[in-house]
Amino acid sequence: MNERIFKTTDDEYLGWMSQHPEGYVLNTTRYESSYAVLHASGCHHISTYTRKYAKDAFTGENYIKVCSDRAIDVYRWSKSNRSSAPLKVCMTCQPDFSPSEALDNEQIVSDLEEIAQRPGLKPTQREALVQARLGQGAYRKQMLELWEGKCAVTGFTIQSALIASHAKPWADSNDEERLDPCNGLPLIATLDRLFDKFLIAFDPETGEMLVSREIGEADRTILGLPANLRKVPNEQQARYLRLHLDNFAMNNPS
What we know:
The protein has 9 helices and 9 strands. The protein is of the alpha+beta class.
């Protein structure tokens, strides 16, 4: 991991923020506690002195700062070192990061480590791939734009409840495909899990949903299945959905 920990002097900490304006800062107590808040670098809550602050108040008294250019680094530090503190996001600066259960998935963590260690990647490429693996960042934003910011099936609009995952599996994709917003669908969590496990698929030409025989009639009724895509996929989306449909067929033989 690439985090820096500041716990003795504010000068070095404030200097880091000035040099990393796009970075992330975890504000937490010096010792194990239930307090851990993620900020965007430069947020006034963690950078602006007032008269009541003592010297080195940000890093020298009760609090320390864990900093990195990548939000995932400070998230994983928090998971390892502040296990009793659910990571919260500052509501003032609203850093572009939403912790998700994906980070508890061993395969995803392994993929993230591979990205972190792969030589030759520019920092911007590395961060884009990390965010795409988590279903976040530009990949997620552009995918949501393709679907008017709604679930591709239900039209559900609360974006924090939508998951942007890949139609062509990450392991089978090259970096260009991994970053392509057409490679996947924004779906509510239940549909996303079924899509990821090849229990549902979509006809690439019409958007009609196909449902695995593993899902019985009672469960189909509960979930409202089948339910088609809200619009016909474009040509690029259809290419990825066709690959996903092939995997669906292999996992659900006739």
